[in-house]
Amino acid sequence: MNELIKINAADSVAVALRALKAGEKIPVSGAGSELEILEDIPMGHKAALKDIHSGEAIIKYGFPIGEATAEISKGHHVHTSNVRTLLSGAHDYEYRPTNPKLESVKPETFDGYVRFDGRVGIRNELWIIPTVGCVNDIAVAIEKEASKFIGGSVENVRAFTHPYGCSQMADDQDNTRKILANLATHPNAGGVLMLGLGCENSGIETIKPYMENFDGERVKFLIAQDANDELEAAMKIIDELVAKMRADSRVPCETSKLIVGLKCGGSDGLSGITANPTIGYFSDMLVAQGGATILTEVPEMFGAETILMNRCKDSETYDKTVRLINDFKNYYASCGQPVYENPSPGNKAGGITTLEDKALGCTQKSGSGPVSDVLPYAGKVVTPGLNLLSAPGNDLVASTALAAAGAQVVLFSTGRGTPFGCPVPTVKISSNSDLASRKSNWIDFNAGTLVESGTLPEKARELFDYVLSVASGKKTRNEINNFQGMAIFKTGATL
After folding, report:
1. Angle, alpha carbons 287-250-419 (nearest 5°)
2. What is the pLDDT of residues 402-413, one digit of tens each?
3. Which of the residue ranges 29-38, 60-69, 434-443, 458-467 would you say has the lowest mean pLDDT?
4. pLDDT at residue 395 above 70?
5. Which fold does the domain 125-247 belong to in CATH?
6. CATH node for 4-84
7. How confident is the model at residue 188 (pLDDT cuts 50, 70, 90)?
8. Domains in the chain: boundaries
């Protein structure tokens, strides 16, 4: 088993794959040499492969992840006590296309639900979507009453509560309407009850135009203030929706119909070595079959953004990516916050030192293919291939944005573990075997074995097969635990 790995030939650090003790002499995988460890180094953390001078760049993944703030001797721990970020505000960039290509291959199949517009759902669920937080408790009461219908082709009943829909201004209000409209027309929902209050800013009649082409037999509406007994009125509508859903059945569908969200959270030093590269290879496999993937959490691209920019399919997509990055940096600046207020305490404990370190590991999830499109927050996927989506790093906000963009499933890598689920199945992929063993009630797939045995293509094939099983109906841990929620991004003032 490897114990210390040099990821790229240009790297000045190696990553510990287990806790290392001072005085040990460890073979360095990828370097063909041995390193004497001069101080204890936790698993996932970095050891200096050479003497590094103060002010010198620290190289990992073949790129700078910051600069040394002190003299660092070969074999010493390289982390927050002796490294600082090199990030700053918005930049001028230059397009240097790398022109990546992926060979097209024949799509595989899964069993899904074909909707009236040709899209495919991997679940057939009944969703209750409040237009405003004032009716959240009513939505939950409807969910509880309607749960008696779960069974057969009615796979779940879920109320997606949120605090918004009123007292919002400008972009916040518009984004709430878009997110709710996108969820109401999501292919994983075989039936939807959109529940309004009647006096909110984002009422039903306001949201309807955002829904474009929707199936009126599958999406129904109720204004609580107009009903004498809103629960009774809701259950009459639910009866109609359930009758439709009972006739639904899974049929073979091509993987070109799949849209998969890519997300990470609670990352550690192994995330960029195991889980994220596995997801990236998966992304390439799906894109080669005509499917789509979506990479988001823009702040966690800072420091690796030029890699994505140079993979853009054309100059127009490149310009969109530049705006995506700089707009988010300017958003932080407008709030008086530094762009590099990241990584989190858990990330640092797991071995991630700077935002560049985190970003270079995070973007491994994007694979190696070209960037085909860039979406605004609350935008929807229209182009096969790798899409970039504007959303923050917050796990539930970003994952909800992925679902609203059309993802039928989200792949979520983690080195620390998290139980949450978004509106669609949320596959938790562990970066290390210890987490997968300890939190088997949270983790769906262990990519940590990649440092123990096997190859990246083999592990990605295993993940691909697992995702096809989920697409065909296998429940993820968040679904088994009944952990599903949503969160909407808010940037402005509240009335």
Report:
1. 65
2. 999 999 999 999
3. 29-38
4. yes
5. Rossmann fold (3.40.50)
6. 2.30.130.110
7. very high
8. 4-84, 125-247, 254-480
